Amino acid sequence: MGPLKSTNYALVLCLSGSIVFAQDEPNKAPAHESHPISTERPSFSSSPIALERGKWQFELGYQYSKDNEGVSAQDHILPLLLIRTGISDRLELQISWPGYSSTEVNGNNGHGANDVGIGVKWQLSDPNAATLLGLFAGLTLPVGDSDIGAGVARRF
Questions:
Q1: Which of 116, 107, 94 is nearest to 39 (CA)?
Q2: Whole-prediction pTM
């Protein structure tokens, strides 16, 4: 297959905004004013900043890919779900599920559920440091459909 041309549409759910407001204290600036959202967008971009302890963030997206160089292929993936929560000052838990894939290659169709990912992010540097550093470790759990998923656990 030739180089894959991709158009990616991302939607960051604002559910975290309602959770943030529920955690505000009287006479204190809302948390969203002092700590902007830092999205992950799995496979597209990653942030070294971990969510604060007790905070939750939900991200959703849609991916459409098409390749017409030598092979006629297109792929739709939805909902590209990522759930993040801060479990300590610099440690974050992430659960991801690309969701449902529908693929067509040279007229042959395939579809099904993708595998689930679980991982942790450790923020190494202070959030105000000139260079931000973080480490991420994770596993892909083979729970997806056999035609779509890996079939075995994988590290990422």
A1: 94
A2: 0.71
